[in-house]
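FORM 12-B: Structure-to-Sequence Request
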């Protein structure tokens, strides 16, 4: 069984290729994976390569939880994904080691983190609702801007009543079919 130490990090905006080598030169790693700061969660090729590379017993070293994920919810999902691969996960800045063979310790930590993530979402929704309510009382909240003007809605309804294809109408007005049907139901 191989036991590799693998480094993962997100390169900072000001870092160059040389600093990537300097980041990992003082400690020996069997492999190093990184993503650019501009990579979003959908396009993190370095992280995906890391997950394909790791095997049972490996240790993944990450500078900080923030470099692994931008939200607590995503972090919990990634930790679970790594634990399923039976690897040890080290967070250097937080001085935290999550071992796959100590799931009775790791699971409660993840559960608390997930509870905090839910708390963050609920707090954000409450703040958003309060902000919208305050804007409505000031008269400055008008909701989302309508996709079509009144003249376009009349034209849309006329063409739909004339039997024109709903798909063609949606393409012509650059709206989804769901939005098209919503406009047609409003008449």
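FORM 12-B RESPONSE
SEQUENCE OUT:
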């Amino acid at each position: 069984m191989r036991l590799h130490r693998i480094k993962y990090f997100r390169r900072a905006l000001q870092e160059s290729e040389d600093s990537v080598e300097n980041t990992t030169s003082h400690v020996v790693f069997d492999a190093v994976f990184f993503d650019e700061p501009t990579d979003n969660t959908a396009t993190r090729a370095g992280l995906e390569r890391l997950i394909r590379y790791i095997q049972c017993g490996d240790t993944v070293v990450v500078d900080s939880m923030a470099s692994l994920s931008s939200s607590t919810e995503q972090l919990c999902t990634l930790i679970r994904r790594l634990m399923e691969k039976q690897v040890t996960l080290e967070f250097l800045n937080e001085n935290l080691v999550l071992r796959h063979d100590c799931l009775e310790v790791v699971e409660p930590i993840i559960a608390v983190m997930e509870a905090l993530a839910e708390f963050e979402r609920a707090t954000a929704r409450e703040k958003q609702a309060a902000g919208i309510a305050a804007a409505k009382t000031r008269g400055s909240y008008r909701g989302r801007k309508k996709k079509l003007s009144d003249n376009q809605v009349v034209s849309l309804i006329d063409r739909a009543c004339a039997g024109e294809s709903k798909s063609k109408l949606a393409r012509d007005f650059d709206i989804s079919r769901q939005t098209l049907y919503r406009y047609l139901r409003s008449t």
